[in-house]
Amino acid sequence: MIAIMSDWIEALEPLLGPEIEAEAKSVLFRQGDKVRYLYVVRAGCVHLVRFGENGSSAVMQRAAAPAALAESSVFSSTYHCGGECVSDSILARAQITAVRAALDRQPELLRKLTRHLAREVQRTRARVELLSRRTVAERLDGWLAFNGDALPTRGHWRSVAEDIGVSPEAFYRELQRRRKATDE
Known about the structure:
6 helices, alpha+beta, 23% strand, Jelly Rolls
């Protein structure tokens, strides 16, 4: 879905340390690790990946800049997923103890986190509904309805394909089909 800077991320600024760079395929944390940081993705993309006992994996969050990563971990002692950089990324991070202390002292910060998490639940529900659609056309229609009926610029189409759970090739074929239909 389209990334928009949230007031939660803006409110975290005083708690964030210096930016760090992470290469594609870097692991920020593993499922089961103790929560030490809250990360904000400034550039690039990081996936939260949950691993099953049988070796399967599922992407639980696709955090493309600007985005908070694994923000529900604020209330957990361990990460329930692994954090893996999909691309070269720039991140800022806050000590989790500082974030928790700030939430205890600042009710407005807690309200901003609550609003942010509520929007994330809404986005997740919309994505589940979107992924339940059978065809690429139906999924794209749903994505457009949720994101304001406009595609991002050409260089960002691959991320739309990822959002709707189809291959870039299938997505491009659907765009071509729509172009032909409007030209006729």
